[in-house]
Specification:
With 90 residues, the chain is an alpha+beta fold. It is 22% helix and 44% strand.
Length: 90
């Protein structure tokens, strides 16, 4: 994997970065603010082997998108930070 690569499918993301994928999908399922809508994986941008930014698009309700930054936190866990939420375009 290069220094910056876009992953276009959920399956590819799960295979390329399985621990990142598990952490971010678990986060989307359990985060109370995100439970109001269903979210679908749209793409991931991998900046370094340990840092990915993942785009989810609402598949129900209002058409919105959310970008989540996911990386190891140094304690064996994961840091997941919403970096942008807004109306989906396109």
């Amino acid at each position: 994997m290069g220094l910056s690569e876009t992953i276009a499918t959920e399956n590819e993301f799960r295979m390329a970065l399985p621990r990142h994928a598990k952490a971010v999908f678990d986060y989307v399922k359990r985060e109370p603010a995100l439970k109001l809508q269903r979210w679908a994986f749209a793409r991931a941008v991998v900046r370094r082997p340990y840092l990915a930014t993942v785009l989810f698009v609402a598949s129900s309700g209002e058409r919105t998108e959310i970008w989540l930054s996911v990386s190891p936190n140094g304690d064996g866990g994961w840091s997941i930070v919403p970096v942008l939420k807004g109306a989906a375009h396109g």
